[in-house]
Amino acid sequence: MGSVTPTIAILGAGSIGVSLCIVFARAGCQVRMWDVDGAALSRAQRELDAKLAQLARANTLSELPGTLLARVTWHESLEDAVKGAALVQECIPEQLELKQRLLADLAVLAPADAVLASSTSAITPSALAEGSAVAGRILVGHPANPPWLLPVIEVVPSVHTNPACTQRACAIYRQGGLTPVMVRQEVEGFVFNRLQGAVLREAYCLVRDGVISVADLDAIVTLGLGRRWGVVGPFETADLNTRGGIASHAKKMGAAYARMGAERGQHDPWTDELVEEVSRQRREILEIGDWEARVQWRDEQLLKQAGRS
């Protein structure tokens, strides 16, 4: 890609489509928004205006809203929308047949080297690409919602996806200011929704069992887990919570977590081999000799959060 700013086609003028429009327009890309419904395009234009005004009020834009808006064009013609696009990001409703029909149209209309990415939350890329003549260019690019505020995107290739296409998608997302994370196997819900779902399932169970109220559970997350996860993720949390790192944490807490899982009918113990692998990856990221300094860094970041609340 070099320094060339890619043209992005976003198909589907719903909330995800508008959010990704902001992401790429803010990065200097030409963005073509398409929807089969003209009323949806009009609604999306109003939504885009409102969100850009919100960003401007928060002083988070390096350019005027009008400059970003000038980079966006609106299309009811699919052929016009995808012309010259390096990335075609599909954001239409979560219906497999609908997405497959659109991908079949894109096989004919989109540039031969364009990445064909779906924003689907759960449909695997293999299912999307089934029977497609361009299966090598199809992958999932699942953003966090809203992507204009949460800059991470899951990149999920199928076994048919050309690795060069996956690399190109990651490069375009990075140029857009997103952090692409590779999902190495096709699992329903990918990783974001599986993690979110695990917390939500346990939350429902705790309310059902009379352990806690809805409001108090949300307080535990917003004032505790959520603040901490805004600084360090679950593995780094465990790594920094126990002197000796994540291996020490697993030795002390693994049995208790196994019992909690068994209570919900889940038998996924942290085996010695699994803990060893997780610990190996953590030590590649943070040497144990730097543990105390990282704990201090975490606490400083949490102090900054406390000062903003």
From TrEMBL:
InterPro entries: 3-OHacyl-CoA_DH_CS, 3-OHacyl-CoA_DH_NAD-bd, 3HC_DH_C, 6-PGluconate_DH-like_C_sf, 6PGD_dom2, NAD(P)-bd_dom_sf. Residues 7-184 form the 3-hydroxyacyl-CoA dehydrogenase NAD binding domain. Coiled coil: none annotated. GO terms for biological process: fatty acid metabolic process. Its EC number is 1.1.1.35. Keywords: Membrane, Oxidoreductase, Transmembrane, Transmembrane helix. It is an enzyme of class 1 (oxidoreductase). One of its GO terms (molecular function) is (3S)-3-hydroxyacyl-CoA dehydrogenase (NAD+) activity. PROSITE patterns: 3HCDH. This is 3-hydroxyacyl-CoA dehydrogenase. It comes from Paraburkholderia pallida. The lineage of its organism: Bacteria, Pseudomonadati, Pseudomonadota, Betaproteobacteria, Burkholderiales.
